[in-house]
Amino acid sequence: MQAEAQVTLDHESKALLSQARTQFSASPALVSGTTTSETGMWVVVAAISMSFAAFTSSMIVRQGSSADWLHFHLPRVLYVNTLILLASSLTLELTRRRIIAIPATLRHSSADAGTLLSNGIYWLYVTGALGLIFILGQFLAWRNLAAQGLYLATNPSSSFFYVFTALHGVHLLGGIGGLAYVLRKLTGSKTDSAMHVRSFGAFSIYWHFMDILWVYLLLLLAMRM
Amino acid sequence: MQETSLQAVHQHAPPTSFIRKHVFSLDHKVIGKQYYGLALVAVFVGMILSWLMRIHLAWPTWPIPGLDKLSAVGAPAGVMTPEYYLSLMTMHGTIMVFFVLTNAPFAAFGNYFLPIQIGAEDMAFPRFNMMSFWTTFTAFLVMVAAFFVSDGPPISGWTAYAPLSAIGKDAGPGLAMGQNLWAISIAIFCVGSLLGALNFIATTLDLRTKGMSLSRMPYSTWAWFVTAVISLLAFAVLLPACILLILDRTAGTSFFIASGLVLSDHLQPHSGGSTLLWQHLFWFFGHPEVYIAILPSIGIVATILPVFARKPLLGPRATIGCMIAIGFLSYMVWGHHMFVSGMNPFSANLFSVPTLFITIPATILTLLLSATVYGAKMRFHTPALFCLGFISVFISGGVSGFFLAQPSLDVYLHATYFVVAHFHFVMAVASIFGVFAATYFWFPKMFGRMMNDTLGKWHFWLTFIGVYCIFMPMHYLGLAGNVRRYSAFVDDYLIPLIPVHKFITIAALATGAAQFIFLFNLIWSRFKGPIAPENPWEATSLEWSTTSPPPFDNFGGRHMVVYQGPNEFGVEGSANDYVMQTSPEKIVSR
Amino acid sequence: MGKLFAAAVFVITIVSVAIFVMHTWWLPIDISTTGPAIDHQMDETMIGVGILFLAGQLVLAAFVWGSSNASSGRKMKIFPGGATPLVAGAIILVGLEILTLTFVGSKAWGAIYIAPPAENSLKIDVQAEQFAFYFRYAGPDGQFGALHPDKIDDGSGNYFGLDPANDIAARDDIVVGSLTIPVNTPIWLKLHSKDVGHSFYVRELRVQQDFVPGLEIPLHFTANQTGKFEIVCTQLCGLGHYNMKAYLEVVSQDDFQQWLKTQAGQ
């Protein structure tokens, strides 16, 4: 009976949606929901970019203000970490292909949809695991620096290294938290599927941004350190 | 099935418990009131601090009763030490700029009215909205805690210039735990502001109701939107600055502290840091911050004035364009705080030109507001008086900027009372007048009762005359070269100026006392004011198309459709002299 | 109520402007060669801005007065021409004023901060610290000794951290607590800070320059009148900020040579 009711909804969904649009007189965003979370995420991306821009110019000014900048070699593990993070963006895309393709209404009804969903969720777990491995890798990089006697206050160059990598790591951990939230939604209750798609879209923007941000930071550190 | 769709729209159901209704509420209206309450507490704290400062400047040896209870070290037997004066001054500036001027016109009224004015049921992210208030509240608690640490609050001013603020206790009293708390509080405040700005931007872009195009948004909404964009980018820079400052203070880094500095006979271990780096980071935030403080009030006055003039705002598109221009230009001028700081003298022109250019949109806005009054049939209720007062004080504050924007004159006027006069006129007076106008205007909508107009008028007159008596003389002091941030006036040339300071102090105390009329009116009317109808002022924007106060989802399940802009006043051939935004009436002529 | 508002604005405006015009409180005498350009700029700006201020306030008052006519039959009037002449007028007039002030003002600014100091300037090293200014002259050898922050000892008067035992150039450096300079002579100051930010401000010279920890900042001027003036700190530097000052003594060139000899003898 349940399945039948949902199939009926599917047939009429388009009609209902457009009816809702006129009745609600709300922007399509609120009803279909994909836009607002993603708009919000772009705003978040703008703010975080601005913060890292501030740190970047701080580093440039600091490097130029005094002759005490000591160059050092970046720990090799950073490059491995970069590949891991890039891989996680790839697996995120694999997740997307599988999940977004499923019409929300079918998500819990058809067997094909079920397979797609569980495959998608599998790749999402992999993404999260890769993210955690990245964080672990960053700790290794820090250990490497400490072994060379380079700590937070040792030199402005090491100060900025720790500040940049720590802040990126904290933001990435936030992203992993977001990933856990999306996972919970996807594997949870059957209603509100639309919101899952919304939150997934917003989450992907954030995760890919963390990736791009890291590549930028790696280049910056490689050029300047 | 339709309920399912409806639930998707209602992001949260009406709360039932007291905690959910009034404390940890997701409702933007409650959050707006919470911000207002916070700002109200903050402004009285800030005002009392200013009284203490002014009393000390006028009568430095007179013991202030009870001050030794607040700080036995800072004011032994009630007489303020020089460092305690600087502490109070730092806290005054910090609390006023952050917790009053960023909160009241923007977070408080914006949170309450932006969703309603665009026809939405709530902000885009109600949970983040609730978080933004409680984060800001936490920041306030951390800031106030600085009063009670043994070393006292920081003494480095709200601008917290390094290395004074970065070195730690060797730099003097108040610069140990007090400065740490300050930096942590401001960092927390940044997070709260960023969350708030996120909501304002996403909501304005995505949740406008049918027919509410960007050009039909009220000017207050436009102002809140532009302010949110500025705020997002500005606080995103202050947060890194605070992080670097905290690291310098606690982790031994040298971002801002140069080498070879000797304080309290200790050679400091830091090296190579850039003093000017803090100033650049701070003012890159700090200048947009002052536009964050004034833009909402400009939008508020542009919204309220036509209601009482019963004629449309002149040049609505120019008004919006000027607000956007000011927002954009605000990012290009920060160096005008640093003309004599030792930065490259060629950059002085680079910063001076855009600073002067900002006067153009500011002038246009002033002219448009004034010209809206021309030929009007003004209804002189309290909100109108504060709007008109705003125009006058905005002119006064703006013109002194013309002097300070020029490096050649800033050479003489920098760090004098001329600067103090300028920023108080535009921020402490003009911006606050916008908040007063908003309060008297929107109180009926928020609380379902009218404020007392007679008390409002008394409040206006005493305040209007009072602020001119306080801040106009500061220009003269500045021209005489009276340096600011002095806890006492002992230099030869300053002693003859002390009578002017006494006059200012008396005016400040009197004007401050007048604010209690406002406070009384606010509290009394909340419980005993006459019941307010849906649209007591005969205004047009969407908040006046719903009950006073609005229901939980703002419009009682109705889905508003907008047909007009907000500016349809003085319309002829219509039943009234105005057409509401929700009315499909075709407007033929005026 | 409207008429009352208009009257109040009128009175406030006239009284404020009158006090400005009467120079009741004003800049002190100008004793510097670069000062007149600044004073000229100040006067020009005062006139231009004064007109804007007067016009803005009085027009507002006039409009409010006009709008307070109680007769309800009166039709609303739109400002003639609408917004366009106001927008255009603001852009053109304010724009012109901005360009004029910038062009003239940048010369006044450049004379102090961009133009190089004269070849034969008298060089004086200035150190700011919590809460005093100290001044150092090179002495008969014309050389400044090197500075060593670790050797600073206020108790013994070694404010600058000189090392006369090992540094010959430092032996005859003259360190004093007030700035004595000869009149009509280009002076070249080098400002540095011992601890936190400070600032050098002499109203009569029309100069102001921050001391920035970590930087050595040049400042040059020529005083063209003798007298005793105050140097005050204008950058918040701690609890003694209000009390941080030194005297500037501008003396005749002969008196200055005499003073130098006396100091060198000590």
Summary keywords:
heterotrimer, A: 225 residues, mainly alpha, Four Helix Bundle (Hemerythrin (Met), subunit A), 7 helices, 0% strand, disordered N terminus, B: 590 residues, Cytochrome C Oxidase, Chain A, 3 domains, two-stranded antiparallel ribbon, 17 helices, 2 strands, 61% helix, 1% strand, globular
Question: Any idea how many domains of chain A?
Answer: 1
Largest beta-sheet details of chain C: 5 strands, mixed
Shape summary of chain A: elongated
Shape of chain C: elongated
The SSE order of chain A reads HHHHHHH
Instruction: Please state roughly what percent of the residues of chain C sit in beta strands, choosing from under 5%, 5-15%, 15-25%, 25-35%, 35-45% or over 45%.
Output: 15-25%
**Got a strand count of chain C?**
10
Number of helical regions of chain C: 4
Q: How many angstroms separate the termini of chain C?
A: 74 Å
Helical fraction of chain A? over 70%
CATH topology of chain A: Four Helix Bundle (Hemerythrin (Met), subunit A)
Roughly what is the average pLDDT of chain C, rounded to an integer? 94
What is the top-level CATH class of chain A?
A: Mainly Alpha
- CATH class of the largest domain in chain C equals Mainly Beta
- The class by helix and strand makeup of chain C works out as alpha+beta
CATH architecture verdict of the largest domain in chain C: Sandwich
